[in-house]
Amino acid sequence: MRFALGHDLGRVDKFEWPLFAGDFHETACQDTTTLRTLAARGSMVPMRLNSITANRHIFDGQVNGKPLRLLLNFDGGRALRLQVAGDGEQMIADDGPLDAPFSMDEHGQMDIADVTGSLFPTLQGLEVAQVETLESDGKRVGVKLSVARGQPFHIWVDGDELHWGDGAALSSHDWLHGAVPTPSERIKV
């Protein structure tokens, strides 16, 4: 299962999404670009966020910048991987694993680490009621995690980097293209 936010993954004829307790449908274009619209009606079963792991670039023994990919791990073995698309302006969200650790020789290495406590301490154990895409200027640039009893949390891409925070952080971010993204479609995890 793979859901690309603004990223062409080829033609897909069938989706199998387990979480929404309502009806859903998908739409695909007839040309080479696949347009997937997942619309759900009904309520989503809340998911407990257990941990967030990340692919990090390590250089000279130190973490170099922000994580390159995040994997949100929910109860029941469900996961949502978030990463910057190749254009540096859009986000890819899917259920794939993080990259295995590897060496980049003199450029350092890539590792996998649990970053829940260091970067997202307030998110551990939260019940997520809904996940939605964030759109800006027609591009899917992030996700909004609607928390069952609390303020939403956002993870987005801008300037080839992952960013995160609450609604105030999203609104006050210095967007390269000016427009603050808004929620668009539900994502199934």
Automatic annotation (TrEMBL):
Superkingdom per UniProt: Bacteria
Name of the protein in question: Uncharacterized protein
